[in-house]
Amino acid sequence: MALPGAHTTTKAEGSAASRGGATAAARRASRQELARRIGLGAVVPVALVALWQAASTLGWVSAVALPAPASVVEAAGELAGRGELGRHIGISVQRVLIGFGIGAALGLALGSLVGLSKWADALLGPTIGAFRAVPSLAWVPLLILWMKIGEDSKVTLIAIGAFFPIFTTVYLALRHVDKNLVEAARAFGLKGLKLLTTVQLPAVVPAVFSGLRLALAQSWLFLVAAELIASSMGLGFLLTDSQNNGRTDRLLLAIILLAVIGKITDALLGVVERKAVTRWA
Amino acid sequence: MTATFAPAAPHPAGSATAGPRSALGVSFRGLGRSFGEGTARRTVLRDIDFDVVPGELVAILGPSGCGKSTLLRAVAGLDAPSAGEVLIDGTAVEGIDGRCAVAFQEPRLMPWQSVRRNVALGLPHGTGKAEGDARVDELIDLVELGAHASHRPREISGGMAQRASLARALARRPGVLLLDEPFGALDALTRLKMQDLLLEVRRVAPATVLLVTHDVDEALQLADRILVLGRTPDREGATISEVLTVPGERPRDRASAELARMRSALLESLGVDSHRH
Questions:
Q1: 10 Å Cβ neighbour count for B115?
Q2: How many domains does chain B have?
Q3: β-pairing, B208-213 with B176-180?
Q4: Looking at beta carbons, which residues of chain A come within 8 Å of B100?
Q5: Residue B21's CATH number
Q6: Stretches in chain B below the pLDDT threshold 70
Q7: Name one Pfam family in it (chain A) (predicted).
Q8: CB distance from A276 to chain B under 8 Å?
Q9: CA–CA separation, B156 vs B143, rounded Å?
Q10: Can you tell me the ipTM of this complex?
């Protein structure tokens, strides 16, 4: 018997062979692309620092309102020397990671449940929607009253902030999973948790990651909110403390640190996202 | 790609691992399906009474929108009829039925999994790892995807994806194989090769086959009997308008005069002037 479809194989095999030869060149090109992106991305920050330096040396703004870049570096050195800088950064990162982890896990679980089950949607949908409508900072006084000014209240606030972006993206994405794929899997006897892990969750991986990145940004936002209001450590505390003592240099330092650390955590998540999206999409 | 598969001999792995399930008969008893409620109620199928003999290949032919797929979905348990019932091997279909396997018009492979994992998805629940692996290997050989087993669906052609979809259906060891226009979206040449493959598969996996198609030549080439669905002007909903027994052993001579006569008659019953085609 003739081989059915044998003619179609040469095309795919050919492309597989050329794929091997093309990887080295592609890797070189992508390295150049990366260098170009880093270079371009650095232009504006460098220009800003230059402008900042010019503003202080030329006396456009008073040193009290805007200290020179060098004095911010000096402030960093001084705080680091006393071991305070590491403690502030460490505790803030820890709060964000724990709060984000809890909020993300709950958002994923509840988003899956409400996105997949009509019953759960009818039962929980309106309540969760109402809670989402509460501006999250409104929880602060209640959390402090219940949990006192400790780690629990801060981590809980961050978890609340991280929960909603993930819940919403997972919930919406699950509603739009290709119905044909789900039906095919059901026809092969998959249901419940197995259907969720085999078809529905893989299908929403890209959406989950955009939700995670939104949630991470929210986590930093809520960290500062929590630390501004009530804390004795952390980058948010450094902000209020410096404001009270008139230390503009430390204030600027805290803002720069928030920008840099926030960007780094987002970039790390972005790397995982790219890997996951090539794997699952 | 190898051509080591010998059509006449039963596959050794197939006989070693519990063997394919035997073909099962399918009976439609007064089957009807309507959609919507009240004044918006629309009847698609009505009064379907028909018996498919175990091991038979029945083609379901009809104009588009006449409920061919609906009929198939009722057998699979993907859809519940509004009236009557479907019996497989004498017992009624209630919900997704493990005795059936479906290959859809689109391959519907999971895009994030390899061809191999997609085929394995069809294995019945509780299949052991060694047995499952052997079964998947055997089927990938059968549909000649050995060189592409680790590829993702987007890296293979439409014809290969349809072969993977067929292998996934066969992995279930179905008593009834349901094919919903599986070759409809393929180019003419690939479609002919897929039809040959289906006949080949039937020698290895003895299942009853219900094949939905809009292609008269495909039906004449593959089927033992052709079931034509159609509407009458006075009543809403399609029902069986004709059942034809196709003579001759397969593969059939595509140029046979008898088949040409049946082709004209079938096209006419579908409302197409056969002299123009």
A1: 27
A2: 1
A3: parallel
A4: 187
A5: 3.40.50.300
A6: 1-21, 273-277
A7: BPD_transp_1
A8: no
A9: 13
A10: 0.82
